Amino acid sequence: MLKSAYDAIVVGGGPAGATAAALLARAGWRVAVVEKAQFPRRKVCGEFISATTWPLLRQLGVADALLEIAGPRVRRIGVYAGAATVTSKLAPDFPHAIDDGRAVGRERLDTVLLRRAAALGAEVFQPCVLSQFAAHDSGYQCLVVDKDTRQSRTLGARLVIAAHGSWEPGPMPTQHLRRAARASDLFAFKARFCDSALPRDLMPLLAFPGGYGGMVHADGGRVSLSCCIRRDMLAQCRRQRPRAKAGEAVLAHIVSSCSGAALALSAARRDGTWLSSGPLQTGIRTFGHDGIFAVGNAAAEAHPIVAEGISMAVQSAVLLCERLVARPALLGDLCQARRDADALRADYERAWRRNFARRLHVAALFAHLFMRPASTRVASALLGRLPQLLTAGARWSGKADALRGLREFHEAGS
Q: Closest Cα partner for 11 from 33, 29, 28, 26?
């Protein structure tokens, strides 16, 4: 068994984990990343990256590579609900408005970010699973197993950053076991389509009984359709179409409920298979404890109805790592490190809540509003009369708010 020592171990190599690893490695930290999947890999995700995240990606040195392959700029948002199709501009006329949000497939985004972390000095263990996790006198030990060779290795570090998925069980204290099944549990589905009639600058919300979804032009000239549906409605869809696979049953439910979606996909052809995951566990979970810090979905997850998952993952990692780099005592005396870790976590949590708490509340409100036919009809009628409310909703969800509480990150990238 091989052993290695690091300043920090990052568990998960997605947008949050790769961003954290890149920032710490750039600051001179010895960083290890443990990622269970081999990249490139597809993943259930809306794929939209808000305008306010692109400057952070530019500071990381990956924006140009991603912009070369990204979908077109999203300048309008909309709602497709029943026969209603309402659209409005994405960004209102106020000082911080930037309307250049774009979508990039996760197989490309994740690969570019993790390669950047490795180029900056992070050591990537992939595809490896975290088999055991334990605290010891000088920090933490992680036993990781290579999925291909089955070789095991013990990684030790003073700090651990949890950047794993929100619903996957595992040995870390931040990896909770799944709760008992409930009718209201949400399951996520995603597929891509070629030859869609969706306008290139539009990202519509799809509202249908028992769920919600969205479409956006991503890389490769394809439209990404992602959605969430309640467990009980999913079961009903499958009973109505017993010979169809789950994804196709859900799609049939969507197009029968949204004339806008039916029109956009009328001549489209699916590119690749349907992906699914779940159940989702939205809300705030933990910011960590002792020498463990949580970012991305390990810390909290918003309903994907607001398409802020990638942005929150990257931005939360930036908030945490700026604070870690500013406290070199974390890597020194253990007693002082523990005191600094507690103070840093409290500071990080305050910054996190200031930036993202409203997004979680707005996302939950929109999700429950647009999953119910009665409230959807009322909302659609109101939006038809006042489409500017869509623009206001985008602002409430954080799409035009620059990340607050940053100083050193911008200075380091200047």
A: 33
| Cβ neighbours around 43 below 10 Å, total | 18
State CA 313 to chain mean position distance. 5
As a whole number of angstroms, the distance between CA 112 and CA 410 comes to 21
Pick from 40, 41, 55: nearest CA to 101: 55
Query: How far are the Cα atoms of 105, 252, 332 from residue 163, in angstroms, in the given order?
Result: 19, 34, 24
Whole-Å CA distances, 333 to 4, 25, 30, 320, 339: 20, 21, 17, 21, 10
User: What phi, psi does 74 have (nearest 5°)?
Assistant: -95, 115
Residue found under tokens 């690091």? 6
Name the residue with tokens 């399951």. 187
SS3 for 175?
coil
Phi-psi region of 288 (alpha: psi -120 to 50; beta: other; left: phi over 0): left
Q: CA 324, CA 328: separation in Å to the nearest integer?
A: 7
Amino acid identity of 302? A
Determine the distance from the C-alpha atom of residue 379 to the mean position of all C-alpha atoms in its chain, rounded to a whole number. Answer: 27
Distance CA 298, CA 292 (A): 11
Q: What sign results for the dihedral spanned by CA atoms 186, 363, 225, 102?
A: negative
276 residue type, one letter: S
Residue 393 is inside which H or E element, if any?
helix 388-396
- Report how far residue 215's alpha carbon sits from residue 78's, in angstroms, rounded to the nearest whole number: 10
What's the CA angle centered on 41, arms 117 and 10, to 5 degrees?
A: 35
Question: Could you check whether the bond before residue 173 is cis, i.e. omega within 30 degrees of 0?
Answer: no
Render each residue's pLDDT in the chain as its tens digit; 414 residues. Answer: 445 689 999 999 999 999 999 999 999 999 999 999 999 998 888 899 999 899 999 999 999 999 999 999 999 999 999 999 999 988 755 444 444 799 999 999 999 999 999 999 999 999 999 999 999 877 899 999 999 999 999 999 989 999 998 777 788 888 876 678 899 999 999 999 999 999 999 999 999 999 999 999 999 999 999 999 999 999 999 999 999 999 999 999 999 999 999 999 999 999 999 999 988 888 999 999 888 999 999 999 999 998 899 999 999 999 999 999 988 777 766 566 677 888 899 999 999 999 999 999 999 999 999 999 999 999 999 988 988 888 888 888 877 777 877 765 544 443
Amino acid at 271: D
The structure's pTM equals 0.92
Residue 124 CA, distance from chain mean position:
21
